[in-house]
Amino acid sequence: MFITYTDENNASKVRKAANKRKISYQGELLNVMPAYKQNQPDSNLKMPLKKLQSRKRQKKSSKVNSDKSLLPTINILDNDCLIKIFSYLPIKNRMRIERVCKRWQTVNQQAWSDIKELEIPEAINLLRPFPMKIETKERAVKKLLLRCGRFLNKLKFKTNARLYRLDIMSIIGEHCSNLQCLTLSLNNHSKFDLKALCLNLHKLERLELSGLNQKNFQDAFLRRLSTNTMKELSLRIEERGYHLLTDCRIQITWAGATGIKNMKNLWKLELYGFSFKADKLKLIVWNESITHLSLENCSFEKCINLVANFRGLKYLNLSSVVAVNNDFLIKLAENCTELEELNIEYCSDVTNNGINAVFKLKKLTTLIINELHEVTDTVLRKFIALKVLHCRNCNFVGDSGAIKLLENAPYLEEINLSGTSISTRFLDAAYNVAISRANAIPLKVFVSHSIKLNWTTPPCISESVLIVEGENDIIQYLFEDMTRLSDFFDFYNNDDDDDDDDDEDEDEDDDDDDDDEDSN
């Protein structure tokens, strides 16, 4: 206890009495000693108020400084600085830093704005280099698109057989609203809801879908695509063995044709392996904005002539279209006067009469007529404005017509004569023409590999003047066709093996994925 004496003498008497053990309290002797000034209860009352408050502030400040010293230096930065730092991390580390603390998890949601292009599954493989289960890959795809989907302008997504079971179309349609270019390579085992893809893609300009078949594709979704922004559309049927099974073709419906017709700014249309009827094709022809048209391997039910009504075409690819004949080419030359590039390879009904009609296309610079076995070199020598000519395996094309073409076509840059009847005489003429060109345009020539081997190469030949490439002979092409045929029959037998391989993938720790899902 503290006792304050106002008189120094009284305090001295009490201290002496205590030393003589004469002072007791409740039957116990007391010791009396002077108290230090800082321990006296009334010492603070004598201290000025400002000085007391200053001491409190100093204690509080020292406590805050000691707390800050315990934190990592990076946490002193504001959110904008952290976002900038996180944006330099690879995708793998961006996913991991969300587990550091709640603040980093929140800030990291805004650190994906620099990712404008994404390619899957390459991006997923960067997350974990070792094999992953299908379920783990699905979660990784979903998490990645949830974080960076709203910032993406370009997305390329490739699926393998029976790889993804989640509804990827709904995820893309819901979370990737700023996409301008979308490339999807589907698989023939999955059924995708393409209508869900069009929910929020109001800025989409280019769409490429490949691996389509009757199970996973319905063209009605084309009506849901933006009619004002769409500029490029590419739809491709599953290729494997397709040229053998003609019933694999998908017929364009009224809904699909109407969707294409309504795309006001569509300039590029590529359809591979589809089937057309006259009434559906007429709807597409109404779209006058199309200048680039590819209908490779498509079939037409007595309506091929309608293609010639695309009067604004500059590029046309009708490769492997059986319906193409001389009459069609005559009508095409009359209507499509702006045509610059034409591909009619594997159109076996075309003869010299059809090629003569094509000569009327004054703006034509590229002509692809591979595998046209009825065409001779007498008609080719007239195409003096060509820059590119491919006539591979045209048996009746020989030295005389090909050399005449070289001499009369000063702007010819590339010519493919592999599998034809030319000899080394043509290569000698090509060398003489190339070195004497006044415009210094280099000439690139493709010939059969055997012709190149037998040709005596001139000394000091420069690639800036003449480039000679050797291609496999027709026997090699037949061998490659047989190989593709064998692959086709083995394809479906290997599907079950693919599933077994997936089951044998290494198990991995999924705690990281679960933590991320819980935090979201």
Automatic annotation (TrEMBL):
The keyword Protein transport does not apply. SMART domains: LRR_CC. One of its GO terms (biological process) is SCF-dependent proteasomal ubiquitin-dependent protein catabolic process. Residues 71-115 form the F-box domain. Residues 493-520 are annotated as: Disordered. The keyword Zinc does not apply. PANTHER family: PARTNER OF PAIRED, ISOFORM B (PTHR13318:SF190), PARTNER OF PAIRED, ISOFORM B-RELATED (PTHR13318). This is F-box domain-containing protein. It comes from Microctonus aethiopoides.
